[in-house]
Amino acid sequence: MNEETPVDPLMSHPITRLRRLYEPLSLLMTLGEVRGNRIKPFNIPQDNSGFNAIKSHRSFVDALAYACAYKKEPAYVTAVALEKRPEEIVVLLAANKGVEDSVVRFVHDILKIVQWLARKPSAQLSSEDGLAALQFLTSKVLRFNAPKIYAYYRAIVDKAAPAVMGKLSNGRYEDNREIANFKQWLSQNLHRDGLQLQEADMENLAARCHNSRRTFEVLRHLAMESHEPQAFERLFKLLNKLGKHVVMSKRIVEGTMALRSDFARGMTVERIPGSPEVPLPFSRRKYNIDGISNRMFPDPAETQRFVARLRTIYDTNELDKLLTEDHLAGKTIVHAEILLLDHFEKTGGDFLNNADKYIGCSKPACYLCYQYICNHPGRYTLPPSHQKLYMKWRLPDIRESEPNAATRFRNQEQILRNMTEFVRRELKKDIENGVGKLKGHPDSTAGGTSTTFEIQTGLEADMGSLSFQELRQQIDPDFEFVVVPEPVSSASSASSIYSRSSADTAVSV
After folding, report:
1. Which spans does this entry mark as compositional bias, Low complexity (predicted)?
2. Contact (CB, 8 A) for 506 and 499
3. How far is 197 from 205, CA to CA, in rounded Å?
4. 267, 89 in Cβ contact below 8 A?
């Protein structure tokens, strides 16, 4: 009879301890999911001798993470970090619900271009080879991200563009040339023969949007002049998101050129598995306003004051109902950037630059990820944050047999205490001040084991000796560029960085 291998036990926090965080957290979210203004990226001191390298490192991982998140769904939010090992640089990938094989293959192709550029110092953005590589990488990124770009396109044609066109059709703007040019651009580019575009058209449309971005500036002026600017602001943001992958592609190439000496050593890809879903730690019988308040405050008088103040602002019966409907049956996952942070804690690995322990992500950090990183003793670089609170978040798993398990668990205990105290302070402050919900804003700009998946880039040491055409042939011999006509705006046309008579997609910087 075969004996089963013992399961490696998890080091778990007591459920009552977790409730101390999640109960006030759920009430805080019910009062308002946006917990403050956006937090910008952590500044790099201008007098830092490594300023350009740090800036290029952050830009590269953020851009690559954005390029990997090819669908506009929470499961596809992706984080990227660069680990420096003696023999090579490892590109670490993690996603909220796990990294798909297609993403690994995509990054594999992108890294072939990156390695070619790193080992070919003559390839610059001012050289034909460098521009050709940028154009090739951009086309690969746009084609891979067609599903996400198409989601933005549908948001434009179904709602955002009609809302703005309705405001511009009252005759007030008939003599405004900039508005006339903008309306003409919409009519010429968002439909073909009266029909909506398809996902296969998104590479072409994204390049057009990037090239024509000056045309969209009129929306900003209209928003500033309007008493109801939301429609103009929404369309402006969406049109720029259509072309954002072009910008991210250029940042990947610029980062590569700035970090050549590191990247030329060799690169591999590893993906960190996603986490299993775990139910929120609530008790159905005790999950209500009175129960949460009693457990928050040891002093009954303080509990009474809190509940009395809450009842002057909100209907507590309605809040009880919302808590039950919204959170009781919810399940949690470890977010992508926390998966990568825990990988470094587990392995003790080195960042590309240990003085700047930065983890890139396809979206700014959420409220809880930001607080976790703030409170972590590992002194990780603080990311930008959209400050939205997501209840379906949890601490990373720690198994007893894993490296540094005891230290990691002690760190988690302290982080959990700090976050609980912070959330309680935030909740008390909201109730005392009678704070209403903050205006929402867009977020951006599966279970497995603890093993990593590795794939070699398959590059030879003399990769830099290949011509650009040989590079294209090695990555994808059947790949063809899409022809993109010149943008409507003559100003944008004049700034095209690469234009050839062949079928290459032309984009402007």
Report:
1. 490-503
2. yes
3. 9
4. yes
Q: Give the contacts of 481 (CB within 8 A, at least 6 positions apart).
A: 135, 136, 139, 502, 503, 504, 505
The pLDDT tens digits of the residues spanning 175-198 come to 899 999 999 999 999 999 999 999
CA distance 281 to 40: 32
Q: Are 238 and 160 in contact (CB under 8 A)?
A: yes
Q: Find the mean pLDDT for residues 444-458.
A: 41
**Which amino acid belongs to residue 83?**
E
Q: How many residues does the chain have?
A: 509
pLDDT tens across 119-154, in order?
Answer: 999 999 999 999 999 999 999 999 999 999 999 999
Q: In the predicted model, is pLDDT for residue 481 greater than 70?
A: no
Integer CA distances (angstroms), 411 to 152, 373, 391, 406, in order: 40, 12, 21, 9
pLDDT at 341: 99
85's tokens: 């090992």
Q: Using the CB atoms, write b or e for 20-53: b if 16+ within 10 Å.
A: bbbbbbbbbbbbbbbbeeebebeebeeeeeeeeb
Q: Which residue has the higher pLDDT, 166 or 312?
A: 166
Amino acid at 89: I
> Strand 89-95 vs strand 267-271: parallel, antiparallel, or unpaired?
parallel
- Distance CA(480)–CA(253), nearest Å, equals 20
d(CA 142, CA 202): 7
Give me the residue spans of the domains in the chain: 120-263+478-509
Q: How far is CA 357 from the centre of its chain?
A: 17
Q: Are 402 and 346 in contact (CB under 8 A)?
A: yes
User: Mean of the pLDDT values across residues 353-360?
Assistant: 95
Residue 159 · residue 165 · CB < 8 Å: no
365: DSSP letter: B
* Burial of residue 294, with CB atoms counted within 10 A of its CB: 0-12 exposed, 13-18 middle, 19 or more buried: middle
30 vs 275, higher pLDDT: 275
pTM (predicted TM-score): 0.86
Q: What is the CA radius of gyration of the chain?
A: 25
* Cα–Cα distance measured from residue 96 to residue 365, given in angstroms and rounded to the nearest whole number: 12
